[in-house]
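=== Structure Prediction Worksheet ===
Name of assembly: unnamed complex
Input type: mixed (protein and possibly other molecules)
Chain count: three
Listed entries:
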Amino acid sequence: MIPFQAEDAIHMTVILATLTPLVAFLLIMLGTRARKNLSAGLSLGAIAISFGCSLLLLARLWNVREPLEYSTRWVALNRMEIPFGFLLDPVSLLMLSIVTLICLLVQVYSLGYMAGDPGFSRYYAFMSLFAWAMTSLVLSSSLLQLFIFWELVGLSSYLLIGFWYEKFSATQAGKKAFVMTRAGDVSFLLGLILVLVHVGNPAILEMNSLDSAGLMPSGILTFAALLIFGGIVGKSAQFPLMTWLPDAMEGPTPVSALLHSATMVAAGVYLFARLFPFFALSPTAMGIFLFIGTVSMILASTMAMVARDIKQVWAYSTISQLGFMIMGLAAGGYFAGVFHLTTHAGFKALLFLCSGVFIHTWHTNDIFELGKGGARRLKIPVIALVVAAGALAGLPPFSGFFSKEAILAALALSSHPVWLAAGLLGVFLTAYYAFRVLCILLFPPSAGEEPSGPVGGLAPAPKGSRQEGSSRTFIWPLIILAFLTLLLGFFQGPLQHFLLGEGKALLVDHGEQAGWLPFTALFLSLAGVGLAWAEFGRCGAARLSFVERIPFLRELFSRRWYLDHFYHFFVDRIVDRGFSKLFAQNDNRVIDGSIEAVSRGTLEAGRFLAFLQSGMIQYRLLVSFAVMVLLSLYFFYRDSGGF
Amino acid sequence: MIFYLTGGLIVASTAMAITRRHMVHAVIYLLFSFFGTAILFYLLGAPLLAALWVIIYAGAIMVLFLFVVMMIRTDATEEVMFPLNQWLPAAIFGAIYMAVGAAVVLMTPGTEVALPLMAGSPREFALYVFQNHWLSIEIVSLLLLVALVGAMSLGRGKGRDRTEDEA
Amino acid sequence: MIVPFGHVLMLAGMLFLLGVFCTLTRRNLVMIILGVEVMLNAAAIAFVGAALHWQSLEGQAFVLFIMAIAATEVSVGLALIVYAYRRSGSFDPSSCNLLR
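=== Predicted Assembly ===
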């Protein structure tokens, strides 16, 4: 552990990289909210500095193999120690660069997208807050510190999703995102405490070193890993906590781009990569992760096949791609997962930003409407969209091809061929739904052959000013991201070298045992593309997917496998009504039952339980006090062995 | 002996404070309780804390209470004192808590030995805090700043909470 | 100073109980916060006693933080109460049930 030394250049750079967005946030919130351009300038300047610093760090530390840790002691109790500081190693540096780059591009893009919005300054303030939370999360040296920023990321994404707070659905979506990720975070916190109790130090390096295995029995270790993974499930919207992500589309489109590519949801996968050696200690947990990743990937892909809202399609594809990353990581392909995270950040941001151009121009999210409106006339966004969709579908030479290959290779090495088959199915589905959207957008039917069914009902899109879409702030981020998507795949070698180092054995061995794999995957994605073309692209096509021909499947997929209904049912009927009815019944029976023998105590108890649902703070306090007292009683009995 | 006198004072004045119907009286009783606590700190070898306690607790926090109570004039007579459905469970659990606490204290060896003296002079104390807890101090100061901003924005009142985006 | 540690703890426990009692039973938001203050006071006494018992300044350092937390909590809490009073015209905690 190196103590804080202010004269250290690297250290100063790190501080600069993380703190400038916070300074921008505070300045905007406190001072410059009234002046829009100044606020945007502050925020952009801050994130640009941050990005510059991260590039500098990446260049300086490219060849450094040992992770650098700068930390100081925050709290030290006799057995526990909680450090606080920065941890610089290849993963965090790579992630830092991605985060700051995407933030920068999205903020530039937002200059055009959010222009004229009454909350312009507020938007930039939240963006800065988000950037600060995310960069600090990436560089956290201990799990507790990571958790703090994890929560901050959740908060700022809540603020951004519910940004248009006049819209009821937006506030609802924000609330849903907040509550559902919170459910995961509770489990994360429990896992964290478990680790803290057993290892006594939540520093990431300590947890990843192999001695922590000795400190925890394997059962506890698996349990802790599963609990921490619960946080990842919530954050990265994996099965079964995935329904918040499509709703989060209520926010402005650049926000979706940011949330989906590099920040909010990527934080979950990043945590997985961060604690990879720790998780790898428990094969059981890894097996469960593999299963969850697979299930979410397949489920989300099927949902994406029938969605009509362009942003929702990309939202589902985010879930499925994240599931894909988790599959790769859980199968042992550390590099594959991180690599796919990198490439995915690029092309998913590109997809959202392109869609944002369309949405901004035609003010509708419906892909059929957009196609009819003439989306293909916007040349640059369309080209960028094709590039991004190609990457998503895993076509060479785009970046997605290389990272998907890496993940599939990792899956091929895993224990059971089922996972590989699922991965290949996912590749096929992904290619299909990506090009379904593309074909619908690019090849609209002429007005005569409008198919019957659900397509017709909507009002025609207003033919807005066509030139708006090609303003400069829109185009440049698209071009940069498109080039990134094109080129990133060819940096696989250097990145692998950077992440894994020369000395360590490569976890994924390419080529020899699975020579047929790239061809199969390529064939499958081409088949997906072809199918999409056959159903939506060619002249006189029915424009109905094979799924939509089967009513049962269509219902199932478009209702998101009824997961939402289940949650509603659960929360509404069982928790709210069920319990309160139970208490009310108890109350009534006690009062009306005219049984004098029932003592006043039970009456009070019944009334008390009914009051518990009444939202008054003191009853809740009373319950927590009672629980504390009973707990102390329990521990007293246990430790003194009874009287 | 001073300890027991002060302790008795603290408990008595706190008990008076929490049973007053009139909030101003309650605050003033509590003030006595905090003065007693400060004396106790001095006796237990923490002179700096004793001074800070008088300055911050008695001087600032209680005055804040007093301000609020006096600012909002209300006839406190409407309050239902100690409703049974709150009083009874609290008393039951309080009794259990007290019994367990007393048993734990009595059964733990070493608690009946008289405490040794320790000279925690302000200089030593400050050195200790800033050597071992400087980060926490910074965090706490940040927290105070946030609380200040939060209290201000809450206190600005109803009329202005919709105007944030008008600029 | 010839006070056993146990007696300090008993005093702190009694004070804490009074604070809990005040918080749980008074139907008045200001008194609820007052009860919280009493509880914090009790915790501070226990910490100072513990510092003496183990001859370490750690406990006294914690009292410093307790003071800061108490100041924060009171300022924000009282601002909230004033706000609630302006909305509902009452200090009764059962009138703050908008979230119900």
